[in-house]
């Protein structure tokens, strides 16, 4: 069948993207779903910094690639071996397809699925195939097994989680990355530090604000939010932050003062090694620092090594929010419906597919939290 996808042919084109147009809306041939795969009509997809990092080259990927990894849609067709899915099902797509068989999947750590990681690096689906190609036969790589900035996508059934039919698609899409990554960083990766007397969140994009919401749900005495932009800090206050701190040379001291010597749990979502070092420095004795950001692979982190022992400190990485999507997405949706995770407040813009380049400009300038592309 034919679909229209959003294709990046080369990384590193400078902004503003509204002028340089690194992303093209391209009519492509989309093959039918194979073994263990679904054809999904995409109804809503988010613009995320992980997409932006591919556009800028900070997160190198194989080219050309159809971008987009945070989405919700409706199953149109199913391939063989997709028990549990049927046409008409509403699904949220997760950006790590978990094979269910490797040792990490067996240990309920699907974010570390080895075949899933290999497929994502190769730009293929979990089974190794590629379903998108141009009329001349040129293959278009899949972004994180999803390629969701498109009218339709073929995905592994291991990338999909069924959700209630009455959940609006624009809200449902948020659970595929922003909520999964941010809330999971607090509730899963940071679980050993909970309940925490104080929690600090560095970086208030979609992931960071989702982490803030999850942190608020745990009832800390002090919840601190750190960012460079006053607009983000104002939103953090609306979402329940007790203290807001402008990022800068005094940020660490201000967080430590607000939390009585350092936060019990600190979450960093920026993807910058210097911010991660600050988040670690703002964590108190016996505390835990969780990082969900993705710096450039060449960047290195320097911390005082002795603090890990002498202060019994913990530094943990969080990918996919250390989530099991089939378990955690329904739980996060329950929390949303119960008012514990008001994730609708993260949705700052609804845009059309034709506005995607402009949307990434807005994201790069920090003028948006989560922009959702609506596909009619």
Broad shape: globular
CATH architecture call of the largest domain: Alpha-Beta Complex
Overall number of structural domains? 2
Question: Mean pLDDT, rounded to whole units?
Answer: 97
Class from secondary-structure proportions? alpha/beta
Q: Quickly name the level 1 CATH class of the largest domain.
A: Alpha Beta
Stretches with pLDDT under 50, minimum 5 residues: none
Can you put this structure into words, describing what you see?
The structure is a single chain. The chain is an alpha/beta fold and 376 residues long. It is 29% helix and 26% strand. It has 13 helices and 18 strands. It has helices at 17-20, 49-56, 103-106, 114-122, 169-174, 178-189, 206-217, 230-238, 251-258, 273-281, 306-310, 325-337, 356-364; strands at residues 2-8, 23-30, 37-47, 65-66, 71-78, 90-93, 132-133, 139-142, 152-156, 160-162, 198-202, 222-227, 243-246, 263-268, 283-291, 314-317, 347-351, 370-374. Strands 3, 5, 6, 9, 10, 17 and 18 form a seven-stranded mixed sheet that branches. The chain has a six-stranded parallel sheet with strand order 13-12-11-14-15-16, with helices on both faces. α6 (178-189) packs across α7 (206-217) and α6 packs across α12. The protein is globular, with a radius of gyration of 20 Å. The mean pLDDT is 97.
């Amino acid at each position: 069948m034919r679909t229209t996808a959003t294709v990046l042919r080369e990384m590193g084109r400078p902004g503003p993207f509204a002028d340089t147009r690194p992303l093209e809306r391209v009519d492509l041939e989309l093959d039918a779903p194979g073994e263990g795969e679904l054809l999904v009509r995409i109804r809503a997809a988010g613009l995320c910094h992980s997409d932006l990092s591919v556009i800028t080259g900070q997160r190198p990927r194989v080219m050309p690639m159809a971008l987009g990894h945070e989405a919700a849609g409706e199953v149109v067709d199913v391939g063989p071996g997709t028990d549990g899915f049927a046409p008409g099902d509403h699904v949220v797509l997760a950006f790590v397809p978990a094979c269910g068989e490797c040792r990490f999947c067996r240990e309920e750590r699907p974010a570390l699925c080895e075949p899933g990681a290999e497929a994502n690096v190769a730009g293929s689906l979990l089974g190794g195939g590629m379903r998108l190609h141009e009329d001349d036969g040129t293959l278009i790589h899949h972004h994180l097994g999803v390629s969701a900035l498109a009218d339709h996508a073929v995905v592994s059934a291991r990338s999909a989680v069924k959700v209630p039919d009455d959940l609006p698609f624009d809200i449902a899409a948020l659970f595929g990355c922003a909520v999964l990554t941010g809330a999971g960083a607090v509730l899963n990766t940071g679980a050993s530090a909970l309940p925490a007397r104080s929690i600090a969140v560095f970086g208030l994009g979609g992931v960071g604000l989702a982490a803030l919401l999850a942190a608020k749900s745990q009832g800390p005495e002090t919840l601190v939010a750190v960012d460079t932009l006053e607009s983000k800090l104002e939103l953090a206050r609306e979402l329940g932050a007790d203290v807001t701190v402008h990022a800068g040379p005094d940020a660490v001291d201000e967080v430590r003062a607000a939390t009585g010597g350092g936060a019990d749990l600190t979450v960093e979502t920026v993807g910058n090694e210097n911010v991660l070092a600050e988040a670690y420095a703002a964590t108190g004795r016996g505390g835990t620092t969780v990082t969900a950001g993705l710096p450039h692979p060449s960047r290195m982190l320097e911390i005082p090594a002795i603090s890990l022992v002498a202060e019994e400190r913990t530094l943990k990485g969080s990918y996919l929010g250390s989530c099991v999507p089939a378990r955690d997405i329904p739980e996060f949706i329950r929390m949303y419906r119960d008012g514990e995770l008001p994730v609708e407040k993260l949705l700052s813009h609804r845009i059309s597919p034709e506005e995607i380049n402009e949307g990434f400009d807005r994201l790069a300038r920090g003028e948006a939290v989560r922009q959702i592309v609506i596909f009619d």
